[in-house]
Amino acid sequence: MRVEIISIGDELLIGQVVNTNAAWMGRELTQRGFNVVGVTTVGDNSDAIMKAIDLSFQRADVVLLTGGVGPTKDDITKQTLCRYFRTNLEFNDDVLKNIESIFSKRNIQLNLLTRNQAYVPKNSTVIQNRVGTAPILCFNQGGKVLISMPGVPFEMKTSMREEVIPLLQAQFLPEYYLKCSYLVCGITESALATRLATFEEQLPLGFSLAYLPAYGYIRLRLSAWGKSRKLEMKNMDIKLKQLLGNELVADNDQSLEALLGEKLRTLNLSISTAESCTGGYLAHRITSIAGASSYFKGSIVSYDNQVKEELLHVDKQTIENVGAVSQEVVEQMAEQVAFTLKTNCSIAVSGFMGPDGGTLEKPVGTVWICTRFNNKKIAAVHRVGSSREENIKRTANMAILQLLRMLGR
Amino acid sequence: MRVEIISIGDELLIGQVVNTNAAWMGRELTQRGFNVVGVTTVGDNSDAIMKAIDLSFQRADVVLLTGGVGPTKDDITKQTLCRYFRTNLEFNDDVLKNIESIFSKRNIQLNLLTRNQAYVPKNSTVIQNRVGTAPILCFNQGGKVLISMPGVPFEMKTSMREEVIPLLQAQFLPEYYLKCSYLVCGITESALATRLATFEEQLPLGFSLAYLPAYGYIRLRLSAWGKSRKLEMKNMDIKLKQLLGNELVADNDQSLEALLGEKLRTLNLSISTAESCTGGYLAHRITSIAGASSYFKGSIVSYDNQVKEELLHVDKQTIENVGAVSQEVVEQMAEQVAFTLKTNCSIAVSGFMGPDGGTLEKPVGTVWICTRFNNKKIAAVHRVGSSREENIKRTANMAILQLLRMLGR
Q: Which among B12, B71, B284 has the least Cβ separation from residue A284?
């Protein structure tokens, strides 16, 4: 069952908005055995949308459209769908009722533009949008299906989960997607590939191994289609894990922060962070996990050295002697935050994230990370790049990995 | 000058990775007058890549490929380019030298897989990758250009900035892209569209107005192609600003945190945050701006109530009486963090981000925000949705907007 996604919107082409919708849809669909074969992004342009639909129908059984269904003039998806399926708009009372109920909940007065959202193409089946005013539209064409959804992420996600995916599951028989994921750390991509060369050559037909290098680690994905290949997959999985050895950090697809959360929960540990250069990002990553409050107590973001001294009691003299980006300072920060916030574990980071700052000996990209667990601590220095955004992410990854490895597998 | 982007990688289709590359490229290219007309994402599949190239060449003058050029077996872009341009690989000594210099800098031993990256298609022109081992490959076909780059964001960005964009600027004459951006707050999309209806109808031919609703605000984009339309654009811009009135927060495309940073710098103010439910995300947003250290002092992330009491001196009795998600608590938090960190401004947030938690009167999605500026403070309650990730982002947006409006235009 092949699916194509068409993302509509000039804002995606000019890069004002990142296409997170397509990634989310790809993840949800693949997990359920739908094979996403392509994503096409086009602007708010009727001809471009028509052409994209045509091509997608050639390659796939299901075409999922998002975007271009708002009440404003620049949104032309509905008109284009009428053009493509040679039909006209007609007023739909159920859609109007839905819009009215949403507006009354939000305490907003209905205006003409919003009321116009109740016009839908004649030969479409309507799914009510429970969290927004633009209806979800379904079209059938020779056994193939096209579904148009809003581009607003929350509305798209709600429709996908509650309506679109169940509908697709009922109409098509999804294939069985087998996937094993691995998180590997402490080895380069090419060294890893060399180690796995024979394994890869001996992979059964239809199995594939993909390498996904990220900041500070590599993800591997072993995959195949078809339920009948379950036993083979199991054997390959065992072999691969043996080959990965000590470099294997996790045998699943969870984020670093989810792995850390699971580990802390299992070991019944609590954590706090003391952050200089990551400026709260590390705490954000940890608290992005639902239920993090059971192990995360808090963070002291000491961007300013005075805050390091007053709230984290870092020795003023130490900062003057060796600088805030130093082993001594991150060790004191990690120790003090664990003490103040009463946690078993802590992470402290201090570095120059750029683009400005740094010194001759410690250029932009120098970062010290200290992780603490009970009374043991590990401090390490790293050299990241020159892009601020990437440096912050990379530093957070390395910090979480350092603590994960300290806590053991 | 029309550009198409082809993003290659199974990880993009299955949603393991979000396609941030295409957005970045779209932004950089549009700013320089290149018209990005489409983005196609395909898997690591030779036939799919061939077809995508074919279609892109039909629609555009320049085709930019990213991904699939690593040293591992799953990367097949180079072989596919040979197939497409009917050529073979040949060894390139300059590429080998580049790889060797990169490996020696990183203190890693060269292995066969990495050495193989020095094989390039015979009829391609090679651009050295200064920050990675995969070469950038350029092909010419009947006045049209295809350039293949690595998918690693940092490598792609470096090549784009330093080599690819200058090359395109020299070979093609970019058009002139005129754009005005507006950030609007405190009005629904349809109410705004109603207010702007006449303005939109009277827009000169070739001008377009786009609406981009985001969490807590709307962005508007007025655009046109061609230097000759500069004066018209100026007039439209003046008219539009008048119509936006008090709802206009900014007349540019800057992020909320960049706007806040600029404002704080201009007014010579400092800021701190006290965060419960956003868990450091607000501090992260503020510190994502280079040079934030000149106004941001730090944050106390008090996820645990005990941390609220001990570090932020929130009254224990208040928490017991009215709960941590309350006006009283966020006011105390905002006051105390400004006092402890010695800042003129502060933001405090406390809420239930979900999916679990909340009470009958205060369900998941309830969030209190207090902003403080000198001795004035504003506290407001909001109701966000049920998705944790979106709630955190929305809360941060509303908090920054609240302070921005408090500081005045």
A: B284
